[in-house]
Structures are given as structure tokens and as C-alpha cells.
Design brief:
The chain has helices at residues 5-14, 21-42, 73-77; strands spanning 83-84, 87-88. It has 95 residues and is mainly alpha-helical. It has a domain at 5-42: Histone, subunit A.
């Protein structure tokens, strides 16, 4: 892929950046080196290498779901400013 001033200006406009000419030249060089490195990586033989989502082995640390007793409804509603049919009653927020 050829990196030119038009491409740099297009990418800068997508990112809503205003770049000076010096910044455009620096960005052109940096993007060129990134793409060259990607070409090197694309040339590597990855046959037989298992895909991974993270460099470190991660294990699920979530606890199992367990049904536990809750507070009694009357105790919870005791602090409510208003309640109706066993639920908190609040003012309307939408008309």
C-alpha cells in the first residue's frame, strides 16, 4: 500500500485532526514502517500455531451462581418513602 499525502490527509480528516506539514511527513514515515512490519509478520509461517486471544493463560475467575436467601421484602420496603403492591413507588419520569 502506498502512503501518500492524500491518504494521510484522509485519515487525519476521519480522526478530525489538523496536522501540520511536519506532522504529516512524520505520520507518513511511521505508517510506512508499521505497514512494512506487518508485511514481515504476514510472511511468517504460522501453520500449526494455535490461535490465542491473550498472551497469558486466563481462566474464568467468576464464582458459581448460587441461590441464596434474600432480605425480607417488608424489611427492605420499611425504608421506602412510598410503596405499592410490594414494590418501591417513585414519581413518574416520563409523560
Amino acid at each position: 500500500m502506498q502512503i501518500n499525502d492524500e491518504l494521510i490527509s484522509y485519515v487525519a480528516s476521519l480522526a478530525r485532526l489538523s496536522l501540520t506539514e511536519a506532522e504529516k511527513e512524520k505520520t507518513k514515515k511511521e505508517l510506512g514502517s508499521i505497514l512494512n512490519y506487518m508485511d514481515i509478520l504476514n510472511g511468517l509461517d504460522t501453520q500449526g500455531i494455535e490461535p490465542m486471544s491473550h498472551v497469558l493463560p486466563l481462566h474464568n475467575v467468576f464464582r458459581e451462581d448460587e441461590v441464596k436467601a434474600s432480605y425480607p421484602r417488608e424489611e427492605l420496603l420499611a425504608n421506602a418513602p412510598d410503596e405499592e403492591d410490594g414494590a418501591f413507588r417513585v414519581p413518574k419520569t416520563l409523560e
